[in-house]
Amino acid sequence: MAERMLKFVSVAQEQPDKRPAEARRQDFNEIYDEFVPAKAETQASRCSQCGVPFCSVHCPLGNNIPDWLMMTAAGRMEEAYELSSATNTFPEICGRICPQDRLCEGNCVIEEGFESVTIGAVERYITDNAFDNGWVKPVRPVTERDESVAIIGAGPGGLAAAVQLREQGYQVHVYDRYDRIGGLLMYGIPGFKLEKDIVLRRHRLLVESGIHFHLGKGIGDTDGADSIAFSTLRARHDGVLIATGVYKSRDIGGPGAGLGGIVRALDYLTASNRVSLGDKVAEYDNGELNAAGKSVVVIGGGDTAMDCVRTAIRQGAKSVRCLYRRDRANMPGSVREVKNAEEEGVEFVWLAAPQAFEGEGSVSGVRAIRMKLGLPDASGRQSVEPVEDSAFTLEADLVVKALGFDPEPLPTLWGQPELEVSRWGTLMVDRKSFMTSLPGVFAAGDIVRGASLVVWAIRDGRDAAAQMHAWLEEMTAAQAEVAE
Q: Where is the FAD/NAD(P)-binding domain (predicted)?
């Protein structure tokens, strides 16, 4: 096996072929082609099999990356899949949307100049190949249990927990206010990064596993036709996991902030994804959430902003600019995504922040001011300061605010004032048990840690499921003792 590895000295790094920018501007299909088997094996063989695998250390899931790279290099693909899926519930999704350049690949120990192993592309190939060969099977618990658990939220965290609990034999019920599973995987992330058939394929597998989905069913303080009271949910199930994510968009003020044509990123992306799925969206058809023929300005510098600018390009915008108050080096979004956006025709306006919005009834421009980087703040990140007399205006018919997300006020919405939250509005949990201030109610993912990566949501969901299982086992044992 050893002679198959350490090929980084003789084999150059290669990503899967990327479609030309002009072609990918025309549709919402994924921009990267699949690795062919020989190419996947060759790229996997570049792994140095280092003694301390920093790629695994810096992966939130602790994936056994060197091991499944070695199996891939040897052509032992079914074993590679078993290793990959042992620690990751959805490797085909992480292989597509994880910011590998900041996580595993960004911490590869191969020296600069030889370039890191293409971990994400190989991970994607392994699981897609496993699906093609029928190696991905539904969950089949050894023993069915009587206890049922409710999971609120069909996003990556909730789904990861659902799989882990189903493997233990629990009767798992997932509730989500949307009509399809996936949360932001389905409605927040565009198809050019994650085609929706990938998520729907997982949905079918989860249903075959015996997981019950209650879609279009929100949680509230009373029962209704399309909602269920949180108190009813607790009474119906033996344990509850809250994995709602964070959906409250951060806003921006200033003169003209209430003009028409200024929209939230999530509304914009959801409309686009629904249209791609074949849904009828009135706000898209009337142009409110459609960039066709417009001068678009996206405010923000994270991955959501990258999704918005690249979506606007595909909708046929006249021009697309991204306004960000820091420079390229300090941008929180993936470096790879910035490069893809630039190739597709997005213009980045670095070190600039909005001051006001111009227009009569509807926005016609964004008045901005130049910024400069100052001294590091308490977090170690450089502060930003305005440059005097540097105001300028960007033409804009559509402004998309991609400023991040905060938690919704769940205690108020659900009529549960005793559900404790932090000063940021996230749910307070015991860091070891994942239990909230309500007995038998657990929480995981963004609703606990704040807006973060999909891979962290999966990790939290898996860990929370393990703690729920331990608690339910303890409760079952205690009830048995009382019965005796």
A: 148-461
- The tokens describing 164, both together, are 């882990």
Residue type, 204: R
Q: Is residue 257 located within the same domain as residue 374? A: yes
Burial environment of residue 385 by CB neighbours within 10 A (0 to 12, 13 to 18, 19 or more): exposed
CA–CA separation, 299 vs 309, rounded Å? 10
- Asked whether 89 and 445 are in contact (CB, 8 A), the reply is no
Whether residue 192 sits in one domain with residue 71: no
Give the orientation angle of helix 65-73 with respect to helix 119-132, to 10 degrees.
Answer: 60
* Structure-token pair, residue 378: 């308490």
Nearest to 197 by CA among 121, 278, 269: 278
Cα torsion through 190, 103, 131, 244, rounded to 10: -60
Q: Residue 266: pLDDT above 80?
A: yes
**125/25 same-domain check:** yes
Residue 220: what pLDDT? 95
What average pLDDT does the chain have? 95
308 in the same domain as 276: yes
Is the CB of residue 44 less than 8 Å from the CB of residue 205? Answer: no
364: Cβ contacts below 8 Å, ≥ 6 apart: 358, 395, 396, 397
Residue 1 has pLDDT above 70, yes or no: no
Sign of the CA dihedral with 298 first, then 301, 306, and 310 last:
positive
Query: What domain range is 204 assigned to?
Result: 148-247+405-483
How many structural domains comprise the chain? 3
Please check whether residues 193 and 329 belong to one and the same domain: no
Clarify whether residues 30 and 91 are in a common domain. Answer: yes
Beta-carbon count within 10 A of 171 CB: 18
User: Does residue 203 share a domain with residue 72?
Assistant: no
Contact 338, 306 (CB under 8 A): yes
Q: Tell me the CATH number at 311.
A: 3.50.50.60
Quickly list DSSP for 388-449. Answer: EEEEEEEE-SEEEE---EE---HHHHTT-TTS-B-TTSPBP--TTT-B-SSTTEEE-THHHH
Cα(157)–Cα(241) distance, rounded to whole angstroms? 10
| Domain final residue, candidates 67, 100, 133 | 133
CA 390 to chain centre: 36
- Predicted confidence band of residue 2 (pLDDT cuts 50, 70, 90): low
Q: Could you give the 3-state DSSP secondary structure of residue 287?
A: coil
